[in-house]
Amino acid sequence: MASVNIENLDKKYGALSVLHSLNLTVADGKFVVLLGPSGCGKSTLLRMIAGLESISAGEVQFDGVRVNEVHAKDRNIAMVFQNYALYAHMSVRKNMAFSMRLRKVDKKVINEKVEWAASILGLDSYLDRLPKELSGGQRQRVAMGRAIVRDPDVFLFDEPLSNLDAKLRVQMRTEIKELHQRLKTTTIYVTHDQIEAMTMADEVVIMRDGYIEQSGSPMMIYDNPNNLFVAQFIGSPGMNVLRCTVVEQDGRLLAQHEDQILALPADANVTAGQVIYYGIRPEHLEPVKLGEGEGAVGGAQAHIRVVEPTGPEIHLYASLAGQEICCISRTRTQWQPDEPIVVTPDLEHVHLFDVETENAITPNH
Amino acid sequence: MTSRRTWLPNWLTSEHPLPWLFPVTSLLLVFGLYPVLYSLWLSFFKRNPATRIEKFEPSWNWSKLLADDRVWDAVQVTFTYAGIALFLQLALGMAIALLLDSDKRGFGVLRALMTLPLVVPPAVTGMMFLLMYDSSFGVISNSLYALNILSPENPILGTGSTALWGVIVADVWQWTPFMVLIMLAGLRALPREPFEAASIDGASSFQSFIFLTLPMMSKIIALAVLIRGIDLFRIYDYVKVMTDSGPGTATETLTAYAGTVYFKSANFPYASAVALATLLLVLVTSTIFIKLFKVRF
Predict the structure, then answer these.
(1) Can you give the pLDDT at residue B5?
(2) Interface pTM (ipTM) of the complex?
(3) In this structure, what CATH number is given to the domain that contains residue A343?
(4) Domain match, A129 and A46 both
């Protein structure tokens, strides 16, 4: 096992710069997820750690030792690819044994290892099949088996679940997490799926356009996004963002979006007249039917457009002064489209962002 | 979706391909099958060269063929020629294709240049090499003399032990690019990920080639061997132009012998039998190969 250090890492393709002086530390045994939209450079970063892409500047270190010049085959890493990258002409057994065969490991040891991996992954009865005779999920397991028989220092996953159907994806997500809890090998996992990132990671690293926007534990990032991009990228349904002007009424600061007024947290670090983005997650925006409740303070009026019952809760998509918002109702109220409602933000969970920099406005303390 | 062409009669639609295949099928029948059947018919006659009288005697030419030492020599020469040329073309073709398989600048031009030998007519290639082998001014001969590998007393094409090699070199020069083209097409279509996975699994480039490239290319290699193999069995032009089967019969292949019997001895029935024997040999060899390597078209 090993820790992985990224220091001032740059990647350039000719004049095009795709990674800009990245710094990242992955502690030994941690499960770190690189998350970002496609084209953000997360796969490139992973492939540089693997040794499949050259490093334009900066350093990749394993356990503090520079590995820039170390060939992929000598880094003692294992990688699982998006399209599995199995050896199509080899049986499942040979696929998994390949790395050990190359290192001239004893045949008995190879067999033990392969059977151990196969039993963990439920592949026992498929060992003599060819990849083309397996389903997508089974192929993915073979790719993982090929990785775990190695006892690698670091596991690298490059969007391993994106070719699977939704149900299988959830199942494999759990399996990968269990596997990590059992093996405790340092893992770096690339995905564009924020739910995968949230559910699996010890630490999430959010990337955009070759920069790291924020990193930290999933819940920390969810509760304290650094900027508007992170706030909107994490969470499903996404955070509501309203462009508001701060107004002063009766000595209180409020946020005004068109003709609607929303309350601001008491410690909001804003001044009257300032234009801000007002962010509130759907579960922190409580809907009540207009006229019901006690005319909640700081609530704004909206019209329901679509009602989406999910089972545990009901998602309401509504229009607030022309802006689409989403709020979540956990009561069994009969919501109707076109119904007027009042939505009240939970002031504990309001996020404010500067309109220029899009960075979070930290509250006064 | 394309709409059904209603003006087309039903039997001319794509569900009925036979009418469309009729023109090419009839050409094949006329210029392919008919000559073969006629040769077979012809081979059943015994020809008296002096009287030029042909008499129906079905077994005559075929038993003569089996007892003819020159035929067996020719079979040996043909197999030697085809085997060596095929091996060289395959090995060189694969090696050159591996070198040319790159997206770097200039490689497109290199790939195009490499196909140039294919546009030279084989007879012209033969003439070219004939000149280069010439013991007084040929560039190849003189280079080999200068390096003391050969001596002027034994001209390449005039010496029994080297003449076949001389012809093979011309064949290899002309047809290696064809192998390169097929191999390149195969190499360029290989997926990249298994090779990356292998390099992470610890494979050197040589190990990747042995364990991944070769098995993944096996179908294409088999097809290339089949196409070139059949072609090599038909070798006629280089031998005809460069050595005319000589010295003696050192470079006499089956087709060359059939040509000699036909054009020089004018023994048409026996020439037919020799030619048909060549066809039979190609059929048997290629069928065994197809079965053995499970080639699919």
Answers:
(1) 66
(2) 0.82
(3) 2.40.50.140
(4) yes
